[in-house]
């Protein structure tokens, strides 16, 4: 349950957790966020000159072109006291420095793969593998069509056996939900073989 | 016109922070939840308009990312203003739920998320 608050009228805040939705540019990340989010996907934009570079004052900023990196996200209320946020990671490779911040404290990630150009998601897969961040792969079919079986896609992406690969449709709520559940199931499977020292 | 809207969009938000581009503390992640303290502490200075706007939006708990999106301001700008409000005792900040318990992922938390997803 939410923690104590200093005064009576202050509303108790819920716990929050997050999952990242990653993948190449235009692979359907924001579509997926929108399909399962209880709110229309929100967007926040960060000026790169401030977020990405070591600038301590704004001298000369008026001469720079405004470059922003956009973050789309959505929300799922899991329970009265627990809210899950879904963050679509910026797809352009040059904005990847943002991913480290995003990845801190995340439960895990969904890497969306476009069946027509899987190579656009190689870098995302690599990112999570290198950092040992658990992920599942969702293969987003073009118009919901899936010409290749999941195992064939696993081979072509050289994914280890413990990474679930699901055929999905980013436009469909149930389909996206099942991908998220597959991620949680993978996380649970990673924990359960060992006795939990916390209990 | 030189400068124009593009540059204006960048410069204006940091006018709200008195030119500061760095937060004074590290309490705020994207999913830290912010809640306005009600009633506000006695002797609290009258908040500036943008601060007052945040206080209104946070009457119910709001995550930092959501707040930034609703204010249409960069997260980095909002965080600096939130630092001011936290130091003035006008808001509380609840950090994200840790996903690990003694080194392992928190199984109770995972089960709760799974059950919740099953219901949507």
Describe this structure in words.
The complex is a heterodimer of chains A (199) and B (120). By secondary structure, chain A is α/β, with parallel strands linked by helices. Chain A has six helices and seven strands. Chain A has one domain (19-191): P-loop containing nucleotide triphosphate hydrolases (Rossmann fold, 3-Layer(aba) Sandwich), CATH 3.40.50. In chain A, helix 1 (29-36) crosses helix 6 (173-191). The radius of gyration of chain A is 19 Å and the shape is globular. Mean pLDDT of chain A is 84; it is low at 1-6 and 50-64. Helices cover 45% and strands 12% of the residues of chain B. Chain B has helices spanning 4-15, 49-57, 64-71, 75-87, 107-118; strands at 33-36, 62-63, 91-94, 100-101, 104-105. Chain B is elongated and about 45 Å long. The mean pLDDT of chain B is 86. In chain B, strand 4 (100-101) and strand 5 form a beta hairpin. Chains A and B meet through strand 1, strand 2, helix 2, strand 3 and strand 4 of A and helix 1, strand 1, helix 3, strand 5 and helix 5 of B.
In short:
The complex is a heterodimer of chains A (199) and B (120). With 199 residues, chain A is of the alpha/beta class.
Can you identify the CATH class of chain B? Mainly Alpha
- Helix/strand/pairing category of chain A: alpha/beta
- Could you state the order of secondary-structure elements of chain B as H and E? HEHEHHEEEH
Q: What order do the strands of the largest sheet of chain B run in, or round the barrel if closed?
A: 2-1-3
What is the CATH topology descriptor of chain A?
A: Rossmann fold
What CATH architecture label of chain B applies?
A: Orthogonal Bundle
User: How many helices of chain B?
Assistant: 5
Task: Categorize the overall geometry of chain B.
Answer: elongated
Strand segment count of chain B: 5
Family (chain A): Belongs to the GPN-loop GTPase family.
GO molecular function, one term (chain A): GTP binding
Keywords (chain A): ATP-binding, GTP-binding, Hydrolase, Nucleotide-binding
Pfam families (chain A): ATP_bind_1
